[in-house]
Amino acid sequence: MEFAAFPGNGKQRGESAELRRLRQQLAQVSMERDVLKKALAIFSQPTK
């Protein structure tokens, strides 16, 4: 017997689409954060 994460026939598709959208948004924001951290490291170095 297999159990569903969301029992019943409710809004599974809508929740699944929202979860996918949120994961994509998280990946985008994480990438932007990493770029900003690298830029900060570059611009924080003392000039020669």
Order of helices and strands: H
- What best-fitting shape do the alpha-carbon axes yield? rod-shaped
Tell me the distance between the termini.
67 Å
The structural class is mainly alpha
Count of extended strands: 0
Overall pLDDT confidence = 85
List low-confidence stretches. none
Radius of gyration: 20 Å
Number of helices: 1
Please bin the fraction of helical residues.
55-70%
Q: Report the β-strand fraction as a percent range.
A: under 5%
What about the largest sheet?
A: none
Polypeptide structure, described:
- The longest helix has 32 residues, at 12-43.
- Helices cover 67% and strands 0% of the residues.
- The mean pLDDT is 85.
- The protein is mostly helical and 48 residues long.
- The protein contains one helix and no strands.
- This is Transposase.
Précis, in short:
By secondary structure, the protein is mainly α. 67% of the residues lie in helices and 0% in strands.
Features:
single chain, 48 residues, mainly alpha, 1 helix, Transposase
Question: How do the helices and strands line up, and which of them pair or pack?
Answer:
Layout: H1 12-43
Organism: Stutzerimonas kunmingensis
Protein name: Transposase
